[in-house]
Specification:
By secondary structure, the protein is of the alpha/beta class. It is built from 11 helices and 11 strands.
Length: 323
Amino acid sequence: MSIGTIGVLTSGGDAPGMNACVRAVVRTALYKGIKVKAIMKGYQGLISGDIIDIDNRRFVSEIINRGGTILHTARCLAMTTPEGALLAADAVKKAGIDCLVVIGGDGSYRGALELSKAGVNVLCIPGTIDLDIASTEYTIGFDTAITTAMDAINKLRDTSTSHDRVSVVEVMGRRAGYIALWAGIAGGADVILMPEKPEDNNIDKICDVVNKNKDIGKTHSLIVVAEGVGSVEEIAKQVQERTGIEARATILGHLQRGGYPTALDRVHASMMGGIAVEIANENRFSRAICYKNGRYIDIDLEEAINMTKTIDKTMYDISKMLV
């Protein structure tokens, strides 16, 4: 079977570098003589038939440097039901798409797996700032997100130093603490709190660090908190009450999802997008594109979804020694 038409969509939360990935899928496919259809607004757009034919490279010109996704994205509750997956699979077939390339996170992968079970040829590319897909060491958007967080932390450090206060900074990561860990190390945090390490989320331990800083003459401290840990306002309030040092909470929020993607995100995204088309052209489907041990590989999609990921022990241990 030869691939005549590839469809591409972005799903779930947007991530810097998604546009670079879309660009690579489109241009690699057109280079190989494969037609391309762009699905707007993720799985929701697929079900509703919001699909565009791309017949030239100009559609993806001047987007490699842009954050967000030109294809837009949306949450699609229908894809969590068997009926919704069948509707989406029917839409793929009606559009004449031979292979669907899905760029997104864990939820997007699960939706793609349901499509695969319904007979759709799918390939998945990891696009999420959270770095929480176990099958790959890198996910598109992560480097930009931690760079944005680090830049904000640097600015907050200037203010907390000037005012002799504690800064409690919330970064994204509802279920995963990778942004907190990386941005905390890069920003020189005194405390890093993550959902994976609940034993650290103890106000007594946090205040001990702040008080030790005060004892050695350092009257400012920086606490980086993944959003899944809990209220940064409450943490700041308790730190101030227990230590007597002014504490302020700052929530970085969706700021971390935006902005120009870094070179690392653009290159990984471009490589993964191009490789996905190569795999489709080899008639290999239901695969997840991964980056492991310095190489781009692909593995079975269901296997990828069933993998579990934990915080790197060495990285975590070192982070505790650096405070």
